[in-house]
Design goal:
130 residues; mainly alpha
Length: 130
């Protein structure tokens, strides 16, 4: 039980830091809620990839992209709509949903899952960490 908690903390931290850094590179800014969202996404994606190791890369990417889009939507409705923090706004993007998610970024999340899949595979092989 304690080992699982330690693993989850490591995975959450990897995802949180990576997501925040990626956002800083892309938008030149981030918000602490993005680190929480990124950590949650990576932990969830890792657990699914580990549970279903025979999934093909295409399936992994589609599942991972859907998870990230879903969690981004949930986070957006909490931090942007409910608390009006205006962390991001996709209102100018084509086919956006209430300015919180859009197909363009969903496609980027799907592509992001290519390296995420490789990172998850490496972490699964390293028994000392995970």
């Amino acid at each position: 039980m304690l080992k699982r908690l330690k693993c989850d903390c490591i995975l959450f931290s990897i995802g949180g830091v990576a997501y925040a850094l990626l956002e800083i590179l892309w938008r030149r800014k981030t918000h602490w809620t993005m680190a929480v969202t990124g950590g949650s996404c990576f932990l969830t994606i890792f657990r699914i990839y580990k549970k279903f190791p025979k999934l093909c890369l295409r399936s992994k990417c589609l599942i991972g992209g859907a998870i990230i889009t879903f969690m981004e939507g949930i986070c957006g409705f909490i931090v942007n709509v409910k608390y009006k923090l205006n962390v991001w706004d996709y209102s100018n993007c084509t086919l956006n949903f209430k300015g919180q998610i859009c197909p363009f970024y969903s496609m980027l999340w799907i592509l992001l899952c290519i390296p995420i899949s490789g990172i998850c595979k490496l972490l699964c092989k390293n028994k000392k960490i995970i």
